[in-house]
Amino acid sequence: MDRFDFVNRSNADYMERLYEQYQRDPRSLDQSWQAYFAGFESAGGRRPADENAAPITIGVHNLVHSYRELGHVIAQLDPLGHDRTSHPLLDLSQFGMTAESLDQVVGRANFYGPTNGTIRDLIEKLRDTYCRTLGVEFQNISDKTQREWLTLRMEPILNRPQFTPAESRAILFQLVAAEEFEKFLGTKFVGAKRFSLEGAEALIPLLNTIVDDGAKLKVDEVCFGMSHRGRLNVLAHVLNKPYEVLFSEFMGTTVTAETEGDGDVKYHLGYANDRPAGDRKIHLSLSPNPSHLELIDPVVQGIVRAKQSYKGDKDHGRIVPLLIHGDAAFTGQGIVSETLNLSELVGYRTGGTIHVIVNNQIGFTTTPRESRFTPYPTDVAKMIQAPIFHVNGDDPEAVVHAARLAIGFREEFRCDVLIDLICYRRHGHNEVDEPSFTQPVMYREIAAHRSVRELYSERLIREGKLTEEAIEGMRKEARARMEPAIKLAGELRPRQRTATMNPLWKGFTIGVNADYSTKTAVPRETLLRIAESTAKLPADFTIHPKLKKLMQGRLDAIKSGKGIDWGCGEMLALGTMLLEGTPVRFTGQDVQRGTFSHRHAVLHDYNNGRTYTPLSNLAPGQSKFTIINTMLSELAVLGFEYGFSSGDPRNLVIWEAQFGDFVNGAQPIIDQMIAVAESKWRLSNGLVMLLPHGFEGQGPEHSNAYLNRFLGLCAEDNMQVCVPSKPAQYFHLLRRQIHRKFRKPLILMMPKFLLRYEPSSSAIEDFADGSAFQSVIDDPTAPERDSVRRVLFCCGKVFYDLHARRELEKLKGIALVRVEQLYPFPKKEIQGILSRYRQARDICWVQDEPRNRGAWSFMQELLAELLPDPAVLSYVGRDAAASPATGSYKMHELESEEVICHALELPPKGKAGAAEIKPVEAKAVETTAVASSKPSSGQ
Hey, is 552 helix, strand or coil? Predict the structure, then answer.
């Protein structure tokens, strides 16, 4: 008994709390306490409320806990009937019981539902609660309050709420409308892809319940994201998109010669609507999405976070994200787990997302066994300890109950919640696909299986809630709504109310063929004020000695008007916008300090580590500055920032890749959303992407941000691609993102080596005095124009290499021109520069990158069209290469030397008395002559 001596030293209140915890969940206590309280009760200690009940045993408590934990494993969840009926951990022997124990009276234990006190009845009620058509995973949640909240809403009603006849009729009518809609489309548009909801029609009452109950809980807006399956049905019966508009998209009557953009298929489109909900309205929006199913997940999160910010929803309760997934994609797409991880991080929280998995129990043709090793597709979400409701899609009342629990839990705890809607797919992946080629047995079962509408109709008839005549009347009513709509759809551009995705975009233009220039200069006194404010730290803050010198150096540079480096130029750009009322959101891996230790936007006290953000403390009333070191993700984080920028165009949103090549991890967001959203969906965006780029011998990946790839995506003024060569240029680029009446994504190939390279610094007049961004910068040495016979066009770091060698060699007759904005192509500016060098016959494009990886393939045709006769265009740079750059620093230096020498027409070192250089094995430089495309003067 020595081990229990501690009991004598415990106070009564503490013991009481432990005993209450023991009654709720014995296994939550140490085994010593379990044994103590079991002995206490066996010895005639405190008894259950039922005075006639036998003493409670640990086995009974374990029984209740095990059903809460594992009941879902033997629940009736599969509409096709392939359910597990037993589990060894739920066998009576696991709890020290036998069949003879079933009639023993044990009371309620810690079960909150009604029971007569026998083990038999307790098991029956536990099975009713956790093993029917709704199975729940929630015992892995570490928060006791959350577990108890769920328990108290499930067990007293045995997870089976009573629906009034009116509520049951409303559920049935939604099923009827959903089913008739799909049949109507299948009849009227035979062979057309629609990604039918058939087999999962219960999704409609599920979503409508979340919306209606959310409105009762004071939710103002629900932002949806979903893939193809059932999207048209959701648009029609949740967001109330007019039938005639949906039908016209099948008929092509919405498309005219004047239609702007390229558009998208109907099952990718978004919509927004204000829907009545009781005595108020709730705003619903469905974001458009690409075919890459789960890319929309972080985008919706970003949109929601932006809306919560500008609407002052600090508690994240008024705007709710709701994502609808496919079962195969939820497990298979890594962006899902990345987005789940974001949900719990500061700067990315949205107060919880309701995830609905439309679990067809199959991918395209891939079975669950082939696509995952876990029992459920939702298992990937267990890392965030969200409750998971597995519900049989053929029981619409259980589906509605799960929806009520989900929105209630989300609003109570501001946490994610998952609903696994287990159903089936009546057709193949699409309506022209033949699923029995690969799943013949499954699809024989589906063909013989009655629809959820039919099953629920029979149930309501048995219960006396509806008659067959009333149900047939529902079908006729649903059909009657569609017949006139299809006639109206035959009109050209059927009338519809404009659905506004976001009112904050009112007043902005698309920006095709727009004037990109705008006033971005700032008075000198404002720049000095920012420098002084950022250099002034709290009296009790001890800055790192090296950073103290850096901060003072920035202030000295602005006071002297020269030597302003990149970190300082960025600070001035952000500071001026914060003072002007523009919120700034800056994210990426290690952005607070900066990968290259050049930014230091967040300072750390040298003594105690506490932080101070100078740009957040410029002046009272300034706009919010958010700078976040993100998790090691590019795909989900960039998607979130794209969404945030879409949600509020008044913010300057910047994402920085740690190195330029890191953008590879986010390429699907760039390819399928950022580059094409304006053309496909008429959605603009002002996201800034900072991609450190430059050939400095750092190996294949860290040299290259894939400039050629971005230029290959450019068309129809869809985005801007720039390579600024000076801090002031960067300053004006950031400011013009906000000071225009349109928004375009801005891709910046940022420097690494130049960050502290004094020749690339800017003077104060480059920021003030009417200065602005220059899309093309002519030779700064102002050579004698008529003496120039060779013009070298370039961008980025290679300009400084060429300039330094030209000055060293005292070369004449060569002009260096920097193209700072590659797209939109600055045609007029380049034409103007070429007209100044009338005697130049050699026009070259010089780049550090291999021939197939820089801007050459993009610039070649555009420059050739501008050449005066008889000039020719040449390429100078590394030869085409499979890898972005060499892994050898020595080889890099040899290649760079050869590029410079070819561009400046110098003999390589070693041929003119310099150090010997061995020949490069693979040809590093290739010069290609391209004749002018303009006709000669004689034609």
Answer: helix
Say how many residues make up the chain.
939
CA–CA distance from 343 to each of 320, 337, 605 (Å)?
13, 10, 29
CB-based contact 606:545 (threshold 8 Å) = yes
Spatial CA neighbour of 568 closest among 380, 762, 821, 703: 762
DSSP secondary structure string for all residues of 92-114: GGGGT--GGGTT-B-TTTT--S-
Q: Using one digit for the tens of pLDDT, what is the confidence trace for 274-319?
A: 999 888 899 999 999 888 889 999 999 999 999 999 999 999 999 9
| End-of-domain residue from the set 714, 731, 766 | 766
Whether residue 909 sits in one domain with residue 867: yes
CA 105 to chain CA centroid, Å, is 54
pLDDT at 41: 57
Whether 489 and 535 map to the same domain: the answer is no
- How many alpha carbons lie under 13 Å from residue 628 in its C-beta half-sphere? 22
Distance in angstroms (rounded) separating the CA atoms of residues 716 and 752: 31
Which residue, 741, 766, 791, sits at the end of a domain? 766
User: Per residue in 716-741, is it b (16+ CB within 10 Å) or e — as a string?
Assistant: ebbbbbbbbbbbbbbbbbbbbbbebe
The CB density around residue 546, as the number of other CB atoms within 10 Å, is: 10
Are 729 and 757 members of one domain?
Answer: yes
The answer, yes or no, to whether the previous bond of 824 is cis (omega within 30 of 0) is yes
> What's the confidence (pLDDT) of residue 716?
92
Question: Would you say residue 157 lies in a domain?
Answer: no
Q: What are the pLDDT digits (tens) for 868-886?
A: 888 999 999 999 999 999 9
Decide the pairing of beta strands 280-286 and 271-277. antiparallel
Q: Are residues 842 and 805 in the same domain?
A: yes
Distance CA 425, CA 434 (A): 12
Q: Are strands 720-722 and 821-823 parallel, antiparallel or unpaired?
A: antiparallel
Is residue 515 in some structural domain?
no
Q: Are residues 121 and 177 in the same domain?
A: no
The residue range of the domain holding 536 is 525-766
Q: Which amino acid is at 749?
A: M
Same-domain status, 377 and 232? yes
What b/e sequence results for 494-512 when a residue is b if at least 16 CB atoms lie within 10 Å of its CB, and e otherwise?
A: beeeebebbebbeeeebbe
Q: What's 433's DSSP letter?
A: -
Q: What is the CATH number of the domain that holds 14?
A: 1.10.287.1150
Q: 755 with 838, same domain? A: no
Task: Output DSSP code: residue 742.
Answer: B
Kindly state the tokens that stand for 118. 């026998």
Residues 251 and 105 in one domain: no
Consecutive H or E run containing 118: none
Return the CATH number at 212: 3.40.50.970
- For residue 578, the 8-state DSSP code is H
Is the bond preceding residue 870 a cis peptide, omega within 30 degrees? Answer: yes
Alpha-carbon gap, residue 363 to 372, rounded angstroms: 11
AA identity, residue 266: K
Specify the CATH number for the domain of residue 605: 3.40.50.12470
The answer to the question of residue 139 being in a domain is no
Tens digit of each residue's pLDDT (9 = 90 or more) over 430-470: 888 899 899 899 999 999 999 999 999 999 999 999 999 99
Beta carbons within 8 Å of 892's beta carbon, 6+ residues apart: 695, 696, 697, 885, 886
d(CA 153, CA 149): 7
With b for 16 or more beta-carbon neighbours within 10 A and e for fewer, the 819-851 pattern comes to bbbbbbbbeebbeebbebbeebebbbbbbbbbb
CATH number of domain containing 875: 3.40.50.11610
Residue 18 lies in a domain: yes
Cβ atoms of 783 and 812 within 8 Å: the answer is yes
Q: How far apart are CA 684 and CA 645, in angstroms?
A: 9
DSSP 3-state of 625? strand
Instruction: Provide the domain count of the chain.
Output: 4
pTM of the predicted protein model: 0.90
> Checking DSSP bridges between strand 354-359 and strand 319-326, what pairing results, if any?
parallel
CA distance 893 to 515: 41
